[in-house]
Amino acid sequence: MSIVEMKFTIFHYLRVLFFFFFFMALSSYSFVVRGDKSSVLIVDVRSFGARANDHRDSTKAFVAAWDMACKSSSSSVDLIIPRGEFHVGPLRFSGPCTNVTHLTVRVKGNLKASTDLSKYRSGGGWIEFGWINGLTLTGGGTFDGQGALAWPFNNCTTDSHCKLLPTVRTLKRTSLKFVGMNRTIVRRISSVNSKFFHMALVQCRDFKGTRLNITAPSDSPNTDGIHIERSSNVYFSRSHIATGDDCVSIGQGNSQITITSIKCGPGHGISVGSLGRYPNEKDVKGLVVRDCKMSGTTNGIRIKTWADSPGLSAATNMTFQNIIMSNVTNPIIIDQSYCPFSSCSSNVPSKVKLSEIYFKNIRGSSSSKVAVQLHCSEGMPCKKVYLENVHLYLASSSGDQNLEANLIDATEPSSSEPQTKNYKRWIRLSIYVFFVLFFQPLATILGRLYYENGGESTYVVTLLPLIGFPVLILFNFFSQLRQQPKSADTNVNHSPSFTTLASVYLCTGLILSAYAYLYAIGLLYLPVSTFSLILASQLAFTAFFSYFLNSQKFTPFIVNSLFLLTVSSALLVVDTESQDTTNVSRVQYVLGFICTLGASAGIGLLLSLIQLLFRKVFKEHTSSVVMDLTIYQSLVASCVVLIGLFASGEWRTLPSEMRNYKLGQVSYVVTLVSAAISWQVYTVGLVGLIFESSSVFSNSITAVGLPIVPVIAVIVFHDKMEASKIFSIVLAIWGFLSFVYQHYLDEKKLKTCNTDPVENDGTQTW
């Protein structure tokens, strides 16, 4: 770790501790933010002569409104385009807007582009935003390019000397162009019938687009949905794109691009390229395309580079994951002889170097028998191209007809990187399993030891799983010291916004605090053996919530596992002998059972929610993300429980409780501190298993650890081991083994479907 990174890490965790001590001050901050909103300047285009539903041109009114908004002395400005229809010609919304730090353009109406083609000078598009910091474009409105008159002139697929309407090169032929932008958000807008590209990004940084609706007829030429070029830290998600060309095209010079949750079709799919047509093109690196669906498209995932490219360039570190294909002609294709013009030559090999390309978890149907085509350059072969868990079948078949994978001029063999990664994954899984199986029983026993020797505060026991999070700060800091610094260029990092992270940590922290409180009450009123066996039902709750949140599939073995674990807990409801050993009333016993069951449901919901957050919000599964989530949710939960501790007045009894502790004051402190540390180590293992496997697998490991506690409880607390408990333990272990066997079958199936890096001139059949 470098000095700069060390300073950043120290500052990061000092900020966590400061947040802990100034938690209550945040409420006053919210009033400051709320009061700030009143200073927002509102600029309405109607104040400058624009009239809704008036067929006269409103271009001058829009330009005047923009000038006032951009040149305002206010730091926050809202430019309002109200509901209704407005006709406008080419518009240039240019910065810099020196004093404005938050500029929001709210398009609520329908903007229609002029159909007078003479207004679109050579190299000009329709609406351009340029050189602005902190722009938000939103409002639910529509940009209608009215492109039907222009489409007959977009004949470049057949004429290499075509003259295009509304270039740099093709990038200016677009309905919405963003150039030189920083910290831009575009959400909840529609673009229809563009004359050429719908949206283009050039030299943009920190750009986020979400909830976009982009449509044009399937036969409309060159109506790409989104084109990205020479940009970095770009993130598009949760959008629907149906056009006559690429839904998303990734041009040259891009880095750290994420495309996720896109519904594409009709169109030409998601493309990288075309690359290599012009001299001095920059490299493409750090692309992630995931959780997308292609329906009726010509291509699914396509990488295309020009033959006889004039200069050297590269495209590397690209991952295409969790993609569903529905009736796609070419689901996976690499074409390094791209040449759409009849006059160009495709005999000279492409000079674009392709490497480190991962196709993972791609399934669905193809409308052609050749589902995978890897046509790499003979002069510069592809390197490290991996296909993992690819399941494609012919759309016209019953689903069991194999498809060919046509690997032409394919690739050079590479190292056994996936196997190495697989071994590392199993090592990590083993460490996480040990954390769960060892430290969870230890923490539970220590919590019961506190109650057995004079401890009475449920809030103290509630705090034990939470308050130890500062230990993880030290652990994470020293573990990062041992790591080699990573290059920012090769790591895709799209951190969620502060508001998103704060909402995530607050939500998970509140659920965690509720779980911990119910856990403490259950542990107070139930024998520790009975308590642990009932808590094993959390696997059933996790599966239930994962079914709705994470599309968890239920196989016969999983259903059997859930049934056995649920029955093993239900047996203890009628276990009256356990009640007699705890010196509690029947009402308290039932209350303990209900609270323990509630704790099981709470942790099941939390684990399923965390799995969803890793997939939809964090979008990267790293140890730092796991640690941050664990630390911050524990921080929030600790604050909530501390408020309850002081509000209830229990804190006043803690000094006398420590003095009267049966094992002594030192043991009192050691018991609580050890329990707190054990809970944090267990939590790291739990969350680690979630992103290495799934929330259901994580909870199944927890379930198998819970039967260990009754055995220890018999030795330490002399709990009775009745026949019902023995039978419950057997069922719990059986249920766990059933789930593990299903996990083994999944891994075995995955290995048979995976392929090694493809060999030169190889042909693989699925």
UniProtKB/TrEMBL annotation:
Predominant location: membrane
Signal sequence region: none
InterPro entries according to UniProt: Glyco_hydro_28 (IPR000743), PbH1 (IPR006626), Pectin_lyas_fold (IPR012334), Pectin_lyase_fold/virulence (IPR011050), PUP_plant (IPR030182)
Name assigned to this protein: Polygalacturonase
Species, as recorded: Brassica napus (Rape)
Transmembrane segments: 12-32, 429-451, 457-478, 498-518, 524-545, 557-574, 589-614, 626-646, 666-689, 696-717, 723-741
A Pfam family recorded for this sequence: PUNUT
Listed Gene3D superfamilies: Single-stranded right-handed beta-helix, Pectin lyase-like (2.160.20.10)
Family: Belongs to the glycosyl hydrolase 28 family. Belongs to the purine permeases (TC 2.A.7.14) family.
Active site residues per record: 268
Keyword annotations of the record: Glycosidase, Hydrolase, Membrane, Transmembrane, Transmembrane helix, Transport
Signal found in the keyword field: no
Upper classification of the organism: Eukaryota, Viridiplantae, Streptophyta, Embryophyta, Tracheophyta
Membrane topology value: Multi-pass membrane protein
Places the protein is found: Membrane
Domain of life of the source: Eukaryota
